[in-house]
Amino acid sequence: MTFSRKIFWIAGENSGDLHTSKVISQLNKNNKNLTYFGIGGENMQKAGLTPIFSFERFSVMGFSEVIKHLFFFLKVELKIKKIFKTNPPDLVVLTDYPGLNMRIAKMAHKFKIKVLYFICPQFWAWKHQRIFQLKKLTDYVAYILPFEGKYFKKENVKSSYVGHPISEEIEIRMAKNDLAKEYKLDSNKKWLGFLPGSRDTEIKKMLPEYIKSISFFDAEKYEFLVSKAATVSDKLFRKTIENSANQNIKIIKNHNYEMMKYCDFLVVTSGTATLETAYLGTPFLIVYKTSKISYELGKRFIKIKRIGLPNIVLDKDIIPELIQDEAHGKSIHNKISEIINSKVKYNKISDELKELHEILGSKSASKEVAKIIENLLNE
User: Fold this and answer.
1) Ramachandran region of residue 254, left (φ > 0), alpha (ψ -120 to 50) or beta?
2) Which of 13, 210, 232, 291 has the highest CB neighbour number within 10 Å of its CB?
3) Do 94 and 133 meet the contact criterion of CB atoms below 8 Å apart?
4) pLDDT tens-place string over residues 365-379
5) Does domain 176-360 have CATH number 3.40.50.2000?
């Protein structure tokens, strides 16, 4: 590339910001004539993105939250439309965030601007029609879950598996002994870790049940580690822990990956953390609970029989799942005990997770996506 090219990016969430920043950094190694602008957070901005809106405004979840911010999103779309019309980029790269990004893909297609979709919507779980929209509105799809390929192949969507970003982002920075010293953990005991989630709504639903399950274990034999995400309210988290009157809980901050790696067993709220835990190889249990209305609606619209991403990727029931009415303290305790006290069951999970580690780590997502971008710009 001998002349300047402009790339417009949109990543509306923290995870997308991190994944996309790796791609931009990779592009910067070989390309000195690219300029980046659009929507992204601190990581993308450090890599060279010029933002057109404050990133914090995009972190909204749920129907009611989106309705509250509707005027803002209309303003965003009007500004992007103006950019596409008056100062069109050479390429639009959309990362995840389908609520906005599918509409922007349609807009870019209308203005005949090339579109790459990185980390596509989970059309295989619900809103299956999005695969047809992806085919019509994008020039290429870079997907991160290997089984998605069979759907794209069937519909003749230009696409490729690029590997999963977590394989490049997970980093163990502390030895087990150092973690034990920092949090006053006894290495002679078995460590049970609990990851209740990164949103306040998850903390309200899951943390009380995790604490109840801890109360059934013998503190003389176990250490209890509970992860607190930076995105969770300190007040809510502290109040929930204090209400339990359980003095044996160690709250872990900023060392999630070390906790996942060094615990003997983990309990993880369904989400991306389940893939991270699986990648690190520690046997665990997937738990999920939502409101009764959301659960009943979900059962009608969601087409898959498993909710845990590791189980979906491997297409096997490897990691036990406790969902909704089964997701209570006693059942969580019983399932942990069943696995941790059986070498056969424990080792079976551990062995199966090695396969998933190999699949997700088989490619470098940032390098693969950077190559796709270069190809699209040179076509």
Assistant:
1) left
2) 210
3) no
4) 999 999 999 999 998
5) yes
